[in-house]
User: What shape does this take?
Amino acid sequence: MSRDRIWRSNTAGRRGGNLTGVSVLATEVTAKRLELLSELVPRAGVIALLVNPNSPSAERVLQEVQQAARAKGVQLSILKASTENEIDAAFGSLNELAAGALLVGADPFLSGRREQLVALASRHAVPSIYAWREFAASGGLISYGASLTSAFRLLGTDAGKVLKGAKPADLPVQQPTTFELVINLRTAKALGLTVPQSMLTRADEIIE
Assistant: This one.
């Protein structure tokens, strides 16, 4: 199931139908992730963005992150990967690009390669930010995004309403109200990073 947009349709196969479900706003807060990464690694003059070029939202994400990078005064390097081998190659080019940090896109393909991404970030010693807390829990440095637990809970509530007779077309698409900032201090220490106190006080979860 796509984590970029968890949805269900009550008019499958018909154009112009209604949709209901839960949007987790995965791509909409990508620019915010760049701001957080820049705050955590202020010495990074170049930040790399890893995206899946086949994602329907890739172009919009690129535009938003490029704007955020200009506002922060950092150079943005774009890395594209739609296969596991291309992910390996993308990390291999970080030194050549002089990238001091990495922003991993929230595309479902990339999100499904959590272990590979976290392992590569550790091997290349690159500070990285991800969309979901599961990455930080697996050893990633930092994550920021909607709570998937809350999103699935909302889906369960909608499913209950439908089972009780509600029409899916009458149920609005819901958006998350809970966003989680998770910081892995063990990983920060391994990278030689000192997490600013201002960021620690904003964190929803700190892994030590």
In short: The CA atoms of residues 51 and 186 lie 26 Å apart. Residues 148-163 form the longest helix (16 residues). Residues 25-146+178-207 form a domain with the Rossmann fold fold (CATH 3.40.50.2300). Confidence is low (pLDDT under 50) at residues 1-25.
